[in-house]
TrEMBL record:
The keyword Glycosyltransferase does not apply. It comes from the Bacteria. Belongs to the acyl coenzyme A hydrolase family. Pfam families: 4HBT. It comes from Paeniclostridium hominis. This is Acyl-CoA thioesterase.
Length: 140
């Protein structure tokens, strides 16, 4: 599965009392990026709801004026759920500074789970195999 990405400029209103990016704002951007990924693949965003945020790690501070890239891709597709891996890097760098997973569920107009009929390819890269193994571990 391919990565979808967005860029963000960290501004004054995004900062916490330490002068770094507020975790709540980063979480908002992270969830939004992961949602966009699933919505682009599923094509019916009105049927998607976020079920769970898994193992999000903030590894380094992000400062005002920095441009960050928020990328995400689908790692696992069950019958009604989809799990997405997200990562954040500084523009121009490959160092991952935030990463984690989100699970979305497909629901009908009454909020009842329904099949999404998405299929994803078997993992073919070392990264995808490792990410799928992480998903399998926290789904136990």
């Amino acid at each position: 599965m391919k990565y979808y990405g967005t860029y963000r400029l960290v501004k004054n209103e995004d900062l916490n009392h330490h002068g770094t990016l507020f975790a709540g704002r980063m979480s908002e951007w992270f969830v939004e990026s992961c949602f966009i990924t699933v919505a682009n693949e599923y094509k019916h965003p009105e049927n998607l709801v976020c079920l769970k945020i898994h193992e999000v790690s903030f590894k380094k501070p992000i400062r005002k004026g920095e441009i960050i890239k928020v990328e995400s891709k689908i790692i696992y597709a069950g019958k009604t759920s989809v799990t997405v891996y997200g990562r954040v890097t500084r523009s121009g760098s490959d160092e991952v500074i935030v990463e984690g997973f989100l699970t979305f569920v497909c629901v009908d107009e009454n909020g009842v789970k329904m099949p999404h009929n998405l299929t994803i390819d078997n993992p073919s890269t070392k990264e995808d195999i490792e990410l799928l193994n992480k998903v399998k571990n926290f789904r136990k």
